[in-house]
Amino acid sequence: LERPTLTMFLAIAGQFALKFAFSNIIEVKLIESDKKLRMHPVMILLSVGIFGHLWGPTGMLLSVPLMALLKISLFSDLVPASYRDPILVVLEGDREAPVKHGLEPPTASPLQRVHRHQGSRRAPPGG
């Protein structure tokens, strides 16, 4: 190599340029276009702070993937709508988040259904 310093500088500058392009342009567009992964920026910053406080720099790196995992797990059939819907509203910062994802509204509890059913009964005739 005739100019090792220039080669090293160009290699480092190229790495920085690629990192900048991927993290600030490409990844942002991918996550922004994915409706299931959309999260409010304040929630992302809050999760980075909380996980950073708990686990240090490792927690800061893992905070966004863990929040994405939490959000994706909310779409499971095992999560009741009474838990899922408020968490989605907080994560996305949008009151219409459950409706935008095409999720069914929470149904009445079994106790409320029984009460409604008993209230609709009529007294037998003649008695």
List strands and helices in order, with pairings.
Blueprint: H1 4-33, H2 41-55, H3 57-73, H4 81-92, H5 97-100, H6 110-119
Describe this structure as you would to a colleague.
With 127 residues, the chain is mostly helical. Helix content is 69%, strand content 0%. It has 6 helices and no strands. The chain has helices at 4-33, 41-55, 57-73, 81-92, 97-100, 110-119. Helix 2 (41-55) crosses helix 3. The longest helix has 30 residues, at 4-33. It is elongated. The chain starts with a helix and ends in an 8-residue tail after the last helix.
Notable features of this structure?
127 residues; mainly alpha; 69% helix; 0% strand; elongated
Arithmetic mean of pLDDT: 82
Q: Tell me how many strands there are.
A: 0
Instruction: Write the element-wise H/E pattern from the N-terminal end onward.
Output: HHHHHH
Main beta-sheet strand count, sense and barrel state: none
Radius of gyration, CA atoms, in whole angstroms: 25 Å
Counting DSSP H or I runs of 4 or more residues, the number of helices is 6
Structural class: mainly alpha
Parts with pLDDT < 50 across at least 5 consecutive residues: none
Query: Outline, from the CA principal axes?
Result: elongated
Percent of residues in helical segments? 55-70%
C-alpha termini separation? 106 Å
Strand content: under 5%
